[in-house]
Specification:
The structure holds two protein chains of two kinds. Chain A is of the alpha+beta class. Chain A is built from seven helices and five strands; from the N terminus they run ααααβααββββα. Chain A has a five-stranded mixed beta sheet, with helices on one face. In chain A, α3 crosses α4. The two termini of chain A are about 20 Å apart. The model of chain A has no long low-confidence stretch (mean pLDDT about 95). Chain B is of the alpha/beta class. Helices cover about 45% and strands about 15% of the residues of chain B. Chain B contains 19 helices and eleven strands. In chain B, the strands form three sheets. In chain B, strands 6-5-11-8-9 form a five-stranded mixed beta sheet, with helices on both faces. In chain B, β5 and β6 form a beta hairpin. Classes of the chains: A alpha+beta, B alpha/beta. The interface between A and B is large, with 42 and 54 residues. The complex binds flavin mononucleotide, iron/sulfur cluster (SF4) and FE2/S2 (inorganic) cluster. Flavin mononucleotide (FMN) binds next to β4 and α18 of chain B. Iron/sulfur cluster (SF4) binds next to α16 and α18 of chain B.
């Protein structure tokens, strides 16, 4: 699957590249730029980013595999990342995970995508927002002091709106 | 109330301080002084005299670190701000970036001037999109106003500052892993020496400082070293931001004078333990530092020496509060999973040690462990300590060792 940045994205890519004395330094921000539109890092993205930063696709693929924010496979239309680390655990993240696993019918897996491909649930480590525990992220947006009720409303709204919301 | 917001006044307010507001409050006047009145060496001397210690976790004296830069070098010098904020229980740098981004920008410009740097980066964890946008906007505003960029303030000094994102990896908060990540590589910690001050970003001399450390510079320059020293204790000058989370009524970020009793912060500012329950344990400096019992907490003063005397560390100032309902082995199980997940795998003791500790602890909390597992855990800790490239391995032993020494009965109850 091939991937190309749009002209507007290419302009942004040039601005990113200009920040560094080495093209390779633009690897992480360019991957973010691609993933913001594609939702994941396809082989095409790897090749395009490798071409722009002037390294081998193998090197970029290796870098991608190191960082948890990059997804190598397509995720659902909405990505729900629940913080599993200590402060969020103390403040009840487990209830959120149970609610989500039930609602998305994920069974024993505790992570994954629902049958409709609408929501993907992942559990992540400390999001650096422990004062608002339990904290979750939906499509990159933080939601703090989360409760099952608030979560239900958020998911209902996303379901009603359909599609992938503006990133 | 112990919280005073002496160095970070904007943190009392909800909103983001824009350029106009920051300048109205005297913002960028210290950068002007740093460029106009002071020699770079005088800035470093002032920071040394203030006793400011790194707020990222290790507490290393900032001015001393700057002094490690080679005196003569043909290579450019880089300044990197560590805004990875990944240590569980820590969320203070985020507040600075969201609400007082110009104070960070000014602090970085002052530091850059002191160390002879013309290009600097703020490395912000990838999940912090709003924080990165806030800092990028502050940089844009400052550049437009002529406070950054070419010929800063018309004083003939060039300084460029850029935001650079991470992408999800706790270990990238370790300064040399951060540099690799910033270069577009996997975030693997580097062997030291060479230290970054000699060979850092792109092989050039590099200073890495935490957000809070750098943002503390404008008030220190404004009020002077004696003022800053007077705010804290002898060994711990100044104030510090504490991120309080877990079982308290008012979690949040509080600035207090170093030397403040922990219980005063918890009771007066944070409104005490949640639902009026009893305190069981506190991790005072982020998940990597040893936990304390409630009794130990009653005596604890929040400063470097007080924490050390109590057998723990001030670390990043991430205070995690646990009430009597908490099972300590469960807490440690949570953190064991964290460290096993975040170990980069380069060093065998850390890779294997964190993995096995996690396996053994999960087994214990599921009631399938053995009595000898408890001592086995301590043995694994010993095998990790001081045998690794970075401090993550040691960090992983903090909760395990301290919980077994202080709450051994809870571990033993699992194997009865
Ligand atoms: C595993 C690990 C994670 C770290 N994470 C952070 C972090 O998120 N933020 C930070 O400022 N320092 C972090 N540090 C400490 C840095 O290596 C470094 O000491 C610090 O950024 C120096 O800045 P300072 O002297 O201003 O504190 C971490 C260290 C280790 C070993
Ligand atoms: S101590 Fe652990 S995290 Fe640090 S370099 Fe070694 S394996 Fe990686
Ligand atoms: S523990 Fe969940 S945000 Fe830090």
């Amino acid at each position: 699957m091939s991937f190309q940045f749009t002209p507007a994205e290419l302009e942004e890519a040039e601005r990113i590249l200009a920040r560094y004395p080495s093209r390779m330094s633009a690897t992480l921000p360019l991957l973010h730029l691609a993933q913001a539109r594609e939702g994941f890092i396809s082989d095409g993205v790897v090749e395009e980013v490798a071409r722009l930063v002037d390294v081998s696709p193998l090197h970029v693929a290796d870098v991608v595999s190191f960082y948890t924010m990059y997804h190598r496979r397509a995720v659902g239309r909405h990505l729900i990342s629940v913080c599993r680390t200590l402060s969020c655990d103390l403040m009840g993240k487990q209830k959120l995970v149970e609610y989500l696993c039930n609602r998305l019918q994920l069974g024993e897996a505790r992570e994954g995508t629902d049958a409709q491909g609408q929501f993907t649930l992942e559990q992540v480590e400390c999001l650096g927002a422990c004062g608002g525990a339990p904290t979750i992220m939906i499509d990159g947006v933080y939601h703090e002091r989360m409760t099952v009720e608030k979560l239900a409303t958020l998911l209902d709204e996303l379901t009603a709106a359909g599609g992938r919301d503006a990133q | 109330m112990r919280s005073e917001f002496l160095c970070f006044p904007q943190l009392q307010h909800k909103g983001r301080q824009g350029l106009n507001e920051y300048q109205a409050a005297g913002g960028y006047s210290q950068l002007f002084r740093a460029l106009q009145e002071l020699q770079p060496q005088q800035i470093t001397d002032l920071v040394k005299a203030s006793g400011l210690r790194g707020r990222g976790g290790a507490g290393f004296p900032t001015g001393v670190k700057w002094g490690f830069l080679p005196k003569q070098s043909s290579k450019p010098v880089y300044l990197v701000c560590n805004a990875d904020e990944g240590e569980p229980g820590t969320f203070k740098d985020r507040e600075i970036m969201l609400r007082a981004p110009h104070q960070l920008v000014e602090g970085m410009a002052i530091a850059a001037r002191a160390i002879g740097c013309h290009t600097a980066y703020v490395y912000i964890r990838g999940e912090f999109r709003d924080e990165a946008a806030s800092v990028a906007e502050a940089i844009r505003e400052a550049r437009e106003a002529g406070l950054l960029g070419r010929n800063t303030m018309g004083l003939g000094w060039d300084f460029e500052l850029h935001v650079s994102p991470g992408a999800g990896a706790y270990v990238c908060g370790e300064e040399t892993a951060l540099l690799n990540s910033l270069e577009g590589r996997r975030g693997l910690p580097r062997n030291k020496p060479p230290f970054p001050a000699v060979e850092g970003l792109y092989g050039c001399p590099t200073i890495i400082n935490n957000v809070e450390t750098l943002a503390a510079l404008p008030p220190i320059l404004q009020h002077g070293a004696d003022w800053y020293i007077g705010l804290g204790t002898q060994a711990s000058p100044g104030t510090k931001l504490f991120s309080v989370s877990g079982h308290v009524n008012r979690p949040g970020v509080y600035e207090v004078r170093l030397g403040t009793p922990l219980m005063a912060l918890l009771e007066e500012d944070c409104g005490g333990v949640l639902n009026g329950r009893k305190l069981k344990a506190v991790i005072p400096g982020g998940s990597s530092v040893p936990m304390l019992t409630a009794d130990e907490c009653r005596e604890l003063k929040l400063d470097y020496e007080g924490c050390q005397a109590a057998g723990t560390m001030l670390g990043s100032g991430g205070v995690i509060v646990m009430d009597e309902s908490v099972s300590i082995p469960h807490v440690v199980a949570n953190l064991a999973h964290f460290y096993a997940h975040e170990s980069c795998g380069q060093c065998t003791p850390c890779r294997e040690g964190t993995h096995w500790m996690n396996e053994i602890i999960q087994r214990l909390v599921q009631g399938q462990g053995h009595r000898k597992d408890i001592d086995l855990l301590l043995e694994i800790c010993d095998r990790i300590s001081f045998r690794t490239i970075c401090a993550l391995g040691d960090a992983a032993t903090g909760p395990v060792r301290s919980s077994i020494t202080r709450f051994r009965n809870e571990w033993e109850a699992l194997v009865r």
